[in-house]
Amino acid sequence: MAAKATMAVTGIVLLSFVLGHMAGNLQVFLGPEAMNSYAEFLHDFGHGLALWVVRAVLLACLVLHVASAAYVVRVSKAARPVGYVMKKDVATDFAARTMWMTGLIVLAFLVYHLLHFTIDPLGAYHDFVDAEGRHDVHRMVVTAFQSLPTVAVYVVAQVLLAIHISHGGSSLFQTLGWRSPRNAKWVDRIGPTLAAVILVGNLFIPLGVFAGLAS
Ligand code: HEM
Q1: Which domains does the chain have, with CATH numbers?
Q2: Are 36 and 132 in contact (CB under 8 A)?
Q3: Nearest 10 degrees: CA dihedral of 163, 167, 170, 175?
Q4: Alpha carbon 29 to chain centroid distance?
Q5: Helix axes 184-210 and 2-25, enclosed angle (nearest 10)
Q6: pTM of the full structure
Q7: Centre of ligand 1 from the C-alpha of residue 113, in Å
Q8: 3-class state of residue 135 by DSSP
């Protein structure tokens, strides 16, 4: 089905972003110089044009991912109004059955996250400038994660994102025809492995900062 393929391909793009974003954000533990010069590089690369191209691609992927997911859910509900009676693997099924819910909560987190750091409508971090005149992203992240409620929101969102990826990261192989009886054993481990890596990395940022490891 074209909608499932769209979901899988856009999922790969979004997953790549999440991995890259995590690696970039972990630089908060390397200090202000590493973090702020990295953020400045991303903002200025190609005279700022590259950032907007990446943003446009990500937004397009996100919209397509959500729209095709909504379509797939609608079609499968119409085809199976009563639902399955037998469930095989309980752990896998939990992630699979809650995909729409974890997806929607991650989407809500994303809106909050963009308002929090990128749009910053209240200007909480507007005057955060380092000695070199760059946006002080390091200080912004360190300041943000002094607040326990903020840390809690990020922790919950990362757990749900990991559950979402643990299923999506494997099922995309099936959708794209890359899963066979021969490779099924390790293909089925890709999603949970990616989810675990992303969970550890993304949890370490708010928790590590809160514990004082980045100040
Ligand atoms: C612990 C987890 C995370 C941390 C610490 C974090 C941190 C940040 C920071 C500091 C920025 C602003 C960068 C800047 O102003 O230069 C940002 C932007 C962003 N984050 Fe995250 N992030 C996290 C998780 C996520 C997740 C899970 C997603 C996606 C599901 C995500 C998507 C984005 C997007 C789309 C932007 C906007 C990039 C742009 O400027 O266009 N982040 N994040």
Answers
A1: 2-210 (1.20.1300.10)
A2: yes
A3: -140
A4: 20
A5: 40
A6: 0.93
A7: 7
A8: strand
Distance 91 CA to ligand 1 centre (A): 29
Distance CA 183, CA 144 (A): 43
DSSP-derived letter for residue 211 is T
Closest residue by Cα to atom 3, ligand 1, is 202
d(CA 140, CA 28): 10
Closest by Cα among 13, 2, 195 to 94? 195
What CA–CA distance (Å, rounded) separates 196 from 176? 23
What are the distances in angstroms from CA 199 to CA 101, 123, 149, 159, 191?
18, 29, 19, 7, 12
Quote the ligand 1 centre to 67 CA distance (angstroms).
Answer: 22
Q: What is the pLDDT of residues 83-131, one digit of tens each?
A: 656 555 555 589 999 999 999 999 999 999 999 999 999 999 999 999 9
Q: Which of 59, 30, 2 is nearest to 141 (CA)?
A: 30
Ligand 1 pocket check for 204: Cβ under 6 Å: no
